[in-house]
Write a structure and sequence with these properties.
This protein is an alpha+beta fold. It has helices at residues 27-35, 86-97, 109-116, 122-132, 137-172, 184-202, 207-211, 225-233; strands at residues 4-8, 15-23, 45-50, 57-66, 77-84, 102-104. It has a six-stranded mixed beta sheet. A hairpin with a 6-residue loop joins β1 (4-8) and β2. It is flat.
């Protein structure tokens, strides 16, 4: 976690814009060394990106800095919005690799650091993964539904803590006049929580949306298998 990592965070090259992210304690100094004074946070600046030793111009790019605690990873984070040519991105990445303490990010490491620093919880991490691999509208909606689940779980956590306090008070202090031995509030809270959790568990899981369901149409020749498949799919899947 002490290393500063970098990786291309945008789409496949070549592209109009290539977003190169740098996250970790050296993000700010790297930006200062390659693109001039460290800018104000969360504001875009047009800067000249230069080689570290030769000061050769590598690109003219937009840069933005996010301080620790306000970035997606929870660390100091810099984004270089480079021109999206392969040669441009490669030469900038080579310069970054020459700096001590910097290395290429491993697969999923930006998300892992966001989790480690409390910027994402496990439900949000899974939702982000599902959103990135979503290919259909149903998959996209299921991935975004994780935000609602995360809020529901946090609400359950608070209510379980309240329920625990009510039960402990009934067990330990029921001999006191202001603490009833059978707390109707605790009973109602437990029943409501159980019902809400059961309803959530009864919802269809997102795994089936991504993994799909294997269905076999079997029958003798010319029985209408292809016609049936096309009718169900509402397009010519089988010809």
């Amino acid at each position: 976690m002490n290393d500063t990592i970098f990786a291309l965070s945008s789409g496949t090259l070549p592209a109009a814009i290539a977003v190169l992210r740098i996250s970790g304690p050296q993000a700010g100094p790297v930006l200062d060394a390659m693109a001039g004074p460290i800018p104000q946070p969360r504001r875009m600046y047009l800067r000249t990106i230069r080689a570290l030793e030769t000061k050769l111009v590598l690109d003219r790019a937009l840069v933005v800095r996010f301080p620790a605690g306000e970035s997606v990873t929870g660390e100091d984070l810099v984004e270089l919005h480079l021109h999206g040519g392969r040669a441009v991105v490669e030469v900038v990445e080579r310069e970054l690799e020459r700096l001590p303490g910097l290395r290429r990010a491993r697969a999923g490491e930006f998300t892992w650091r966001a989790f480690e620093h409390g910027r994402l919880n496990l439900i949000e991490v899974e939702g982000l993964s599902d959103l990135l691999r979503a290919e259909t509208e149903a998959q996209r909606r299921a991935a975004l539904a994780g935000e609602g689940l995360s809020r529901a779980v946090e609400d359950w956590r608070k209510r379980v803590l309240l329920l625990s306090a009510l039960v402990e008070a009934a067990l330990d202090q029921s001999d006191e006049g202001d603490v009833p031995a059978d707390d109707a509030r605790a009973r109602a809270l437990a029943l409501n929580l159980s019902a809400e959790m059961a309803a959530m568990l009864d919802r269809p899981g997102a795994e089936r949306l991504f993994a799909g369901v294997r269905v076999v149409f079997a029958g003798p020749p010319n029985a209408g298998k292809s016609t049936l498949i096309n009718a169900l799919a509402q397009r010519d899947v089988a010809i």
